[in-house]
Amino acid sequence: MQQAVQSILSNKLRSFLSVLGILVGVASVIAMMSLGQGARVSMEERLASLGSNLLSVRGGSARLRGATQEAGSVTRFTLDDVKRIAAVNSLVKHAAGLCSGSAQVVYGSSNWNTSLDGVGLEYGVMRSLIPETGRWFTADEMRRRQKVAVIGVTVAKELFGGNVNPLGKTIKINRINFTVIGVAPAKGLSSQRDRDDVVIVPITTAMYRVLGKDYLDRIYVEAVSASVLQETIQAVDRTIRRAHRLKSDDESFSIRDMTEIQQMLSETTQTMSLLLGSIAAISLLVGGIGIMNIMLVSVTERTKEIGLRKALGARKQDILLQFIVEAVAMTLTGGLVGIATGTGVAWGMSVVAGWSVQTTLFSVVLATGFSVLTGLCFGIWPARKAAALNPVEALRYE
To answer: Helix 2-10 vs helix 12-50: angle between axes, to the nearest 10 degrees?
Structure first.
C-alpha cells in the first residue's frame, strides 16, 4: 500500500487529472441528488399546506339544451350539510364550507381587486391558514356574522405597503367596513394563481352580508387518517345523498381526493431525482474510464519495474493488490473531495438561485460507494495485466 501511494505521488499531475474525473462525477451526483431531494421536500411542504387527508366536495353541473351549466347548479350545499358531514366524527376530523367571490378592497387612497373567501371555523386549521401575525376567527364572530377579515400577504402589501401594521385597521370590502384581525401565512403561486391575493372572512358574513348567497361553493373534509380515506369518501357520499334524496347513480356532485395529486407529484419528483442522479452517474463512469486509461499507461511505463519485483520474489497477488490499491486510492480521494465540492455547490445554488436543496446521508454514501466501486471495476483489468507479465520478458522490456 505504501508503494502504491508513492507511485501515485511520483506522477502528481497525471494522478490529479485522474482524480479530477472522479471528483467531478461525485460532486455532480451530490449536487443533483441534493437538488432533487430539496425539490421533493419543498413539494411536500407545499402539499402539507393544502391540508392532509383532504377531500373536496363540490356540487355537480347540469346540461340544459346540450350546454353544461355552472358547477353546483344541481346540488347546492348549505351549512347544514357541513354539520351533517362533521357529525360523522369517527371518520371526519374537520369539515368546513367555502363561499367565494370577487371583492374590491379599499384602505384610504389604496384600492385592490382581489378574491373573497368566506370560510368555516375549521378551514384555517385544515388549510394551514392560521395567522402568525394576528388571529383567526372565533365561533362567536362566526355566529354573529361579524365584519372581521384575515388578509393575504399580497393584499396587505398592496393596501398598506411595508410600513403600516394592518392589524386593527378598517378596510372596505365591496363598500362594507371590515376590521383586519390577521395576515394569513404566505402560500405562493398555485396553477398561475396568487394564493396570497385573497381576503378571508367568516362564511356567515360572506354569505349574508357581502355575496348574498344562500349556498356553499364547496365543502372541505379532512379525514382522521390516510388509512380511512376511502371509508370517509363513502361516508360523505352516503350523507349527502341521504340529505338531498339523491339516487346512487346520480352524479350531481363530486368528491375529489387530494391525495391523488400528492401521489402524482411525489412520483414525478422521485423520477426527476433518479434522472438527475443517473445523468450525474455518467460523469463517474467517464471518470472511471479515465482511471483505467491512466492505469494501463502506468503498467506499460512500469513493465521493467514489475519484472524486477517479480524476479525478487513478488507474487502475482502482490502486483495485483498494488495496482488495485492505486486505483481505489485515487477514486476514493476524488470521491471524498467530490463530496465536499458537491455539498458546496448545492449550498451555493440555494444561496445564489434560491433553490431548495437538501444533502442526505444516502447520497453521500451512494456517491462514495460508487467511486470506490468504480476504482475496483476499472482498476482490475490493468492490475491483472500487470500481474500476468512474465518477469523475464518484463526485464528485457525497453
So the answer is: 100
Q: How many CA atoms lie less than 13 Å away from 112 in the CB half-sphere?
A: 21
For the chain, give the mean pLDDT: 82
| Cβ contact 197:154 at 8 Å | yes
| Pairwise CA distance, residues 92 & 90, whole Å | 6
pLDDT tens digits along 202-225: 999 999 999 988 899 999 998 888
Measured in whole angstroms, the distance separating CA 376 from the mean position of its chain's CA atoms is: 35
Q: Give CA 168 to chain center in angstroms.
A: 36
Torsion angle, alpha carbons of 138, 144, 147, 153, to 10: 20
Q: Residue 210's CB: how many other CB atoms inside 10 A?
A: 22
pLDDT (tens digit per residue) in 100-145: 999 999 998 899 999 999 999 999 988 888 998 899 999 999 999 9
Q: E strands, 224-330, where?
A: 253-257
Residues in the chain: 398
